[in-house]
Write a structure and sequence with these properties.
44% of the residues lie in helices and 21% in strands. It has 326 residues and is an alpha+beta fold. The chain binds adenosine-5'-diphosphate (ADP). The site of adenosine-5'-diphosphate has 18 residues, from helix 4.
């Protein structure tokens, strides 16, 4: 049912001229926790690390971890005598957790000269923040921050999605925006980004546990052209993906990356394949949002699930041609 639905969203997008994605930011983070004997000393570390005059030296030390790691920023938060230092760096086409961790290790060793009283409690102090719901990723971003948009013509909304522009805009406001606010949501201002993120992550050899923050998404819908057409966008600040390393080398996953034209290291520019994969994730999420929201607006959610999920048909040899609109 999910594949059929997302395919329907893709169809509506394709007929309307496709979608446009912009990568707003690209940087992986790691934040160790270190302890001092006093809050004053912890604060001195913060001032040292955040002093622009020290950045170049820190970057030289950090970047030794890999020819692809490039330090972008250092942000330090204090909790009493403890400092949480969030390092952010570009990682080429790798998702980058190993790379960033190695760079952090280099800097921590370097810091022992000026801060011999610093006690490294853990290479990860959870301000990173990896695989946990956290506002820091929602606000600052982690991995690739992507915004993806499309304009769907009114007639396509009617014919393919079986609903209206006005119904979609109203549902988006009351469900994805107000409803998620009522629920006290953290980055969950969407209908089901996580469904699509999980599927694409597993298919392309990503770390599915990073679905937690990679699925953070705000879906916006607005009537345009005097209410005839709809502008839809998904903004996703923390898509953590890579096209080298980890599970990307497995046979099926590698084949899927190849199919998408983003397998391995980019020969044009390091990081280009991973950024493109992030835009593909966002585009697929947009298709999923479009179709599920339409099904709910048209009151078809339960009926389509009963039809497709409970189907006794053998789908083991199914291809995309078997998908039908809900
Ligand atoms: P991660 O850092 O995502 O955990 P790895 O530890 O597997 O992944 O690191 C990626 C490895 O791939 C590194 O050894 C790096 O030198 C290598 N590599 C080759 N080409 C690239 C590329 N274009 N971008 C990033 N890493 C690359």
């Amino acid at each position: 049912c999910l594949v059929a639905s997302t395919n329907r969203g893709c169809k509506a997008m394709f007929i309307s001229g496709g979608a446009t994605s912009t990568v707003l930011k690209d940087g992986m983070t790691r934040a160790p926790v270190v302890r001092f004997a006093s809050a004053r000393r912890a604060s001195e570390l913060k001032f040292f690390l955040e002093n622009p005059e020290n950045f170049d030296t820190l970057a030289v030390v950090f970047n030794r971890s890999s020819r692809f790691a490039r330090l972008q920023s250092v942000k330090c938060t204090i909790a009493g005598k403890n400092a949480y230092v969030r390092f952010c760096c570009s990682t080429g086409d790798a998702m980058g957790m190993n790379m960033v961790s190695k760079g952090v290790q280099n800097v921590l060793e370097y810091l022992t000269d000026d801060f011999p009283d610093m006690d490294v409690i853990g290479i990860s102090g959870n301000f990173c923040s990896d695989k946990k719901p956290a506002a820091v990723n929602w606000i600052e971003g982690r991995g690739k921050s992507v915004v993806c948009e499309a304009v769907i013509r009114g007639e396509i909304v009617n014919k393919v999605l079986k609903t209206s522009v006005a119904a979609l805009v109203e549902l988006n406001m009351l469900k994805n925006l107000a409803g998620s606010a009522v629920a006290g949501s953290l980055g969950g201002f969407n209908a089901h980004a996580s469904n699509i993120v999980s599927a694409v992550f597993i298919a392309t050899g990503q770390d599915p546990a990073q679905n937690v923050e990679s699925s953070q998404c705000i879906t916006m819908m607005e009537a345009i052209n005097d209410g005839k057409d709809i502008h839809i966008s998904v903004t996703m600040p923390s898509i953590e993906v890579g096209t080298v390393g980890g599970g990307t080398q497995l046979a099926s996953q590698s084949a899927c990356l190849n199919l998408l034209g983003v397998k391995g290291a980019s020969t044009e520019s390091p990081g280009m394949n991973a950024r493109r994969l992030a835009t593909i994730v966002a585009g697929a999420v947009l298709a999923g949002e479009l179709s599920l929201m339409s099904a709910i607006a048209a009151g078809q959610l339960v009926r389509s699930h009963m039809k497709y999920n409970r189907s006794s048909r053998d789908i083991s040899g199914a291809t995309t041609t078997t998908t039908t609109t809900t």
